[in-house]
Amino acid sequence: MATYRIAHLSDPHLLDLTGVPTSQLVLNKRITGFANLKLKRGSHHKPRVVEAMMDDLAARRVDHVVITGDLTNLALDPEFARARAVIERMGYSPDDVSVVPGNHDLYTGGAARGQRFVKHFAKYITSDLDVAAAHPSGPFPYVRLRGPAAIIGLSTAVPRLPLVASGWAGDAQLAALERILARDELAGRVPVVLMHHPVTNPTSALATVMRGWREAPTMRRVLSKARESLALHGHLHHRVHEVIAAEGGSTIHRLGATSASLVHHNPHAMAGYNLYEVSRERGLERVSARVWNASSEAFDEAALPQHA
C-alpha cells in the first residue's frame, strides 16, 4: 500500500491589526503581547515566508496538512481572517487540512469565551466520529479518518496570565482521547495526535509551570494504549523528533515543528515544515523537513534533529 504523506507546520503567528481600536490592545493582557511584537517578535516573524510555504505545499500536493496552533498573535478577528486566507492559498480541500489552537489563539478570556478560533476554522475541525466536546474552547477532541492515519485534534490552549504560556487539556478531553483510541475504527490505523504543547516538559519545575504542560505524563500514558502513535506539536519553535518508549512496549514519536514564519540563525529553528509518511503495515516510515533558505528564498530538504 502507498504511504500517506502528512505535512506539519505550526506557529505562523500572523499579525493583522486592521480596524482594531487601540483600547483592544492596551486594556487587557494584549498589552504585553503587543509590546513584545514591537520590541522583538515582529522583527523575526515574516508573513511572506508563510505565504511562500503555502505555495510550496500547493506545488507538492501532500495528502494532508496539519497546523498545531498559534496561527495568530493576539487572537484578534482580523488575524484569524488572515490566517484562514493563508490556509486557503494552498488550494487544499478543508477535508485535507486539520488545525488545533495554540495559546496565542486563545490569548484572552474574551477570545476563548467567544470561541473565535472555532468560528473561523470550523471547516478544518470537523469529526468523522461522534465525540462529545470535552474542552471549553470548542469541539475537541475531533477525529478525521484518513487512509492509514487517524488524525486526532486536541486543544491544550487556555487563556493565561501575562507571560504564562502553559497548556491544559482537562480530564474530560484526555478521557475522550482514551475512548477514541479504543474505537474499532482506529484498529490498524496510526493515531496522529495534534496538540500545541509537547508531551514532554522542561527539566525545570518553574519552566513547566510557565510554558509546559503538567498533564504531559498523563498524555503519554493515554497514548501508550496505541502500539505506535505520532504526537505532533509546536510551541517551542524548534523542529525535533524524539522516540519515546512508553508503557507496554508502545512507541510515541514526539514530532515538533518550528514556527512557520521564524527567520532564525539556528537551522533547527529556521522556518519550515515537517513531512511524515505513514502506512498501515509499517507505521511511521519516513520523517523529513523542508527548511526556508533565506538566500535562495526557497525551501530545501533537511533531516529532523533527533532528541537524545
What does this entry look like structurally?
The protein is an alpha/beta fold. It has a single domain (4-302), classed as Metallo-dependent phosphatases (Purple Acid Phosphatase, chain A, domain 2, 4-Layer Sandwich), CATH 3.60.21.10. The protein has helices at residues 23-26, 30-44, 47-60, 77-88, 109-113, 116-121, 171-181, 205-211, 216-223, and strands at residues 4-9, 64-68, 97-100, 142-146, 149-153, 190-194, 228-233, 240-245, 251-256, 272-279, 283-293, 298-302. The chain has a 6-stranded mixed beta sheet with strand order 3-2-1-10-11-12. Strands 4-5-6-7-9-8 form a 6-stranded mixed beta sheet, covered by helices on one side. Helix 7 (171-181) packs parallel to helix 9 (216-223). The mean pLDDT is 92.
